[in-house]
Amino acid sequence: MNRKTTLIISLLIIGLNGYGQKSLTNIIRIGLYTDIQYYDGPAAGSRHYRQSLEKIPKMLKHLNTEDLDFLVELGDRIDRDYKSFKPVEALLSESRHPIIFVPGNHDYSVSSFNKIRVTAKSGHSKAYHSQTIGKWHLVFLNGLDNSIVAHSWYSLKYWKAKRKLETLKAQNAPNAYDWNGGLGEKQIAWLKTQMEIASTKKMNLIVFCHQPLFPGNAHNLWGYEYMLQLLSDHPGEAWWISGHDHRGGYQEVNGVHLLTLRGMVEGLELSYGILELHEDQVDLIGYGGQANLDELRK
Fold first, then answer.
1. CATH level 3 topology of 27-297
2. Distance between CA atoms of 30 and 32, rounded to whole angstroms?
C-alpha cells in the first residue's frame, strides 16, 4: 500500500469518525445574528451604521470555520435605502453556510417599488416558512406582514395596518409604533397548523421572528399577548428567538423561552452567537457583545 492510498484511507476514517460523533450527539448548530442595519451614514448615538461592514467579515471568518447547519439573520440587514443591500450582501455571500433571512422593519425602509423585493430575499413569497430538523420544528415568521412599513400607502394591507395601529394607540399599548408590526390572519392560521404538526409529532418548537414578545416591551410584535398564550399551550419546549430590541435579553414567560439577540449595529464591537439544540437543552454561545445564554438567565 503506497503513501497516497494510506493517506486517503486515513482521511476517510477520520471523516467517518467525525460523522459518527455528530450523529450520536445529534446536536443542531445554528449561527445567529441580527440588526446589521447598515447604511452609508454617520453614527447616531450607539448605532454605528458604516462600521457594520467591518464587522461582517470578522463574524464570517469565525463562523466559516464552524460546523453549522445554517445561519439565521433576524432582520434589519439595512437601516434605509435599497442600495444599502448591495455592499452587505456582497460580504454575506462569503458565508459557506446557507443564510435564512427573516425580514425586519428597517429592511422595508425603501421605495414602494422595492418593498416586494425585500420580502423575496427570504426565498419565500410571503417570507414565512418552516422546516423540521432532528426533534425540532423550526418556524420562520414575517413579523411585518401586518404593518405600515412593509406595504405601499395605496395597498389594502397598508390601511388595514393603519387601523390596527390606531386601535393600539387608543389602548395605550406599549408597542403602538409605526415601526412595529404583526402577523396577518393567514399567517396566524398557518402558524397554528405548524404548531399542530409539531405537537402531533411530539417535537419541540422554535419560532424565529424579528420582533420579540417580552411583556410590556415597546419593540414587541403586535398581538404579542395572544402569541405568548398560543406558545404556552404547546406541549413540548417552545422558544421565540428575535432581534429588533438591540439590547438583547432572555426571559421565560409561562414556560415559553424568549431570547433576543443583541444588535450588530450597536457600538464598535460585533455581536453574534451560535445556537446549539441538544436532545434535552438549548445553549447559546455568544461572541463579541453577545452574552451566553447562561449569563442572560441570571
1. Purple Acid Phosphatase; chain A, domain 2 (3.60.21)
2. 6
